[in-house]
Inverse folding.
C-alpha cells in the first residue's frame, strides 16, 4: 500500500508539473503558443480556456472529495494528450514525446489512484 501511494504521488506530481508548465506557456508565452496552434490548424481563441481547464482539472485530480469530477478530469487530460500527440505527429515537428510522457504519467496516476482509492 505504501509503495502504491508513493507511485501515485510521484506520477501525479510529475503530471501536475507537466500541466502547469503548459499552462505557464499558454499564459506567459502566448505569441509562440498561438503560432504553434495556428500551425496545428487549431483556433487560437482556445488557448486561454484550455489553460483554465487544465488548472481546474488539476484541482479536481488532487481533491479527494471530487470523485466524479476526478474521472472527468482524467478523461479530459487523456483527450488533451492524445490530441497533442497527433497534432505534433501530423505536422512532423518531433515534439510528440512530451505528450507520450504526459500520457504515461496520466495512466500511472489514474491506475494508482484507484489502487489507493484517492
Amino acid at each position: 500500500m505504501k509503495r502504491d501511494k508513493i507511485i501515485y504521488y510521484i506520477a501525479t506530481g510529475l503530471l501536475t508539473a507537466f500541466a502547469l508548465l503548459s499552462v505557464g506557456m499558454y499564459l506567459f508565452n502566448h505569441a509562440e503558443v498561438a503560432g504553434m496552434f495556428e500551425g496545428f490548424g487549431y483556433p487560437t481563441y482556445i488557448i486561454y480556456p484550455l489553460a483554465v481547464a487544465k488548472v481546474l482539472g488539476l484541482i479536481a485530480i488532487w481533491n479527494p472529495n471530487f470523485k466524479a469530477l476526478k474521472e472527468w478530469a482524467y478523461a479530459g487530460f487523456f483527450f488533451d494528450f492524445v490530441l497533442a500527440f497527433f497534432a505534433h505527429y501530423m505536422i512532423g515537428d518531433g515534439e510528440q514525446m512530451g505528450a507520450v510522457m504526459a500520457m504515461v504519467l496520466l495512466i500511472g496516476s489514474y491506475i494508482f489512484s484507484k489502487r489507493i482509492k484517492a
Q: What stands out?
A: Residues 2-28 form the longest helix (27 residues). The mean pLDDT is 93.
